[in-house]
Amino acid sequence: MPKLTVENVGEFDVEAGKRLVLALTDDAHIDQLHACGGASRCTTCRVEFVEGEPGQMTVAEKNTLEAREVSDCRLSCQILCDHDMTVRVISRLEGSGRADAGNRPKDDIEPQPVEWTDK
């Protein structure tokens, strides 16, 4: 079972293969934003990796980050918890001015992941 460490919050055991955005909201009880419902369209679910950053990313994540000209972070909706990792949550509901964090993302990554090896 992978360990997810959230900076300034704590360490959590998460189900292997669970989406990071869901591990943050369900297991760590973080008010992580996910305005597009986890479909890699909005970049509100951004996290920074302190340790354990995956060496691959989905094409959807790569395209979204490039289109929004965002760097030095990853989209938690496009990452599976398949190893130990430590993250810093960037986008939280608190202080965002939004009414809610967004619709709950589905259990499986959307769109279907196609891995891109160069981050």
Compact overview of the structure:
This is Na(+)-translocating NADH-quinone reductase subunit F. This protein is an alpha+beta fold.
User: What spatial order of strands do you see in the largest sheet?
Assistant: 2-1-8-4-6
In percent, how helical is the residue content? 10-25%
CATH homology group: Beta-grasp domain
- Largest sheet report: 5 strands, mixed
Distance between the termini: 25 Å
* Beta strands, count: 9
Give the domain tally.
1
Label the structural class.
alpha+beta
Helix count, per DSSP?
2
GO molecular function: iron-sulfur cluster binding
Organism: Gimesia aquarii
InterPro entries: 2Fe-2S_ferredoxin-like_sf (IPR036010), 2Fe-2S_ferredoxin-type (IPR001041), Beta-grasp_dom_sf (IPR012675)
Protein name: Na(+)-translocating NADH-quinone reductase subunit F
Structure, explained:
- It is a single chain.
- The chain is of the alpha+beta class and 119 residues long.
- It is 14% helix and 24% strand.
- The protein has helices spanning 20-27, 59-67, and strands at residues 3-6, 10-13, 18-19, 46-51, 57-58, 74-75, 80-81, 85-89, 115-116.
- Strands 2-1-8-4-6 form a five-stranded mixed sheet, with helices on one face. Strands 3-7 form a two-stranded antiparallel ribbon.
- Strand 1 and strand 2 form a beta hairpin.
